[in-house]
Backbone:
């Protein structure tokens, strides 16, 4: 009988060694559960945003079954075996649901990439609109009528959903492109506004950051117009703070992954961000409408922008390329 006793003693010692310490040496509680220190608040928030109602119900059922034996005085061995079997069955169903969910997300992302107008390798990409091609991103002109002369976009080469999902190398190249555009428009005595609208993340959109040049006097007024418009957008009972000031930080530090958002910067100066709560009610052309109102443009310029033929697109590409030639960071890198 000495062997089983030794095994039992070993198991007891192992349990004692792996037991989580919830209190410090001073007697104060540090954590409540063993995994409290494994995830940050941001990680838990992102995980919560990605779970469905079905996932929440499954978690509730598992927790209820685990606590049943502690609450029921008539709990016996038969109940224990039935409970274990039910838990095993629920775990298997949960694993199958997660597998199907992963397959569906992969298929949805593949469809999005294949039909994406911004992916460099996509057949839908209008490559003749590209102005400068970097290693991670490129500058191109819009395929429709530009909001103002010089209206352009900074777009990742690979399928990246938003600025928040961009890695450090991509973000650095985007910022370098921004600096070069600011210098170019400054020489023309113009200011510029950079903005991005991110919605319907479940459909795996492709990031596209707009750059719209403005007359210098309008550029000075732009922060006031955008701040007022953001404060007045969506419902008064919005759960999130309507206006997020990006002073001393960028949008990547201000908005968690998994949330739709809008952000605007003014040249290289920080601007504002807004977490979108009503995706149906928040328009994609939110910034275009503000700029159109500032410049007193026709409403069709942003509501229903007209498609341009190839000749019109070629002319504006040649004009923009002439402006940008001496500021092109991709050509300097090649030299």
Residues:
């Amino acid at each position: 009988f000495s062997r089983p006793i030794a095994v039992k003693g070993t198991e007891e010692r192992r349990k004692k060694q792996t037991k989580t310490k919830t209190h410090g040496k001073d007697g104060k509680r540090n954590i409540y559960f063993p995994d409290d220190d494994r995830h940050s608040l941001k990680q838990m928030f992102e995980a919560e945003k990605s779970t469905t109602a079905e996932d929440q119900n499954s978690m509730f059922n598992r927790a209820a079954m685990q606590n049943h034996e502690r609450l029921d005085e008539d709990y016996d061995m038969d109940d224990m075996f039935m409970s274990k079997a039910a838990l095993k069955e629920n775990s298997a169903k949960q694993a199958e649901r997660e597998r199907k969910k992963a397959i569906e997300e992969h298929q949805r992302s593949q469809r999005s990439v294949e039909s994406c107008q911004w992916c460099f390798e996509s057949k839908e990409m209008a490559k003749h609109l590209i102005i400068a091609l970097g290693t991670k991103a490129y500058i191109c002109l819009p395929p429709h009528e530009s909001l103002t002369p010089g209206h352009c976009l900074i777009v990742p080469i690979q399928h990246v959903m938003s600025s928040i999902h961009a890695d450090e190398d991509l973000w650095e190249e985007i910022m370098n492109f921004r600096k070069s555009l600011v210098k170019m428009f400054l020489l023309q005595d113009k200011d510029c506004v950079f903005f991005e609208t991110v919605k319907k993340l479940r459909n795996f959109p492709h990031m596209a950051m707009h750059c719209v040049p403005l007359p210098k006097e309008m550029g000075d007024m732009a922060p006031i117009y955008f701040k007022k418009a953001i404060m007045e957008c969506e419902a008064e009972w919005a759960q999130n703070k309507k206006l997020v000031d990006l002073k001393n930080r960028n949008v990547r530090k201000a908005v968690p992954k998994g949330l739709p958002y809008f952000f605007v910067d003014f040249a290289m100066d920080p601007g504002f961000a807004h977490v979108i709560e009503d995706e149906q009610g928040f328009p994609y052309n939110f910034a275009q409408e503000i700029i159109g109102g500032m410049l007193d443009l026709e409403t069709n310029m942003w509501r229903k922008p007209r498609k341009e033929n190839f000749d019109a697109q070629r002319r504006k590409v040649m004009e923009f390329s002439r402006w940008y030639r001496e500021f092109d960071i991709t050509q300097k890198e090649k030299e």
Notes: The longest strand covers residues 190-198.
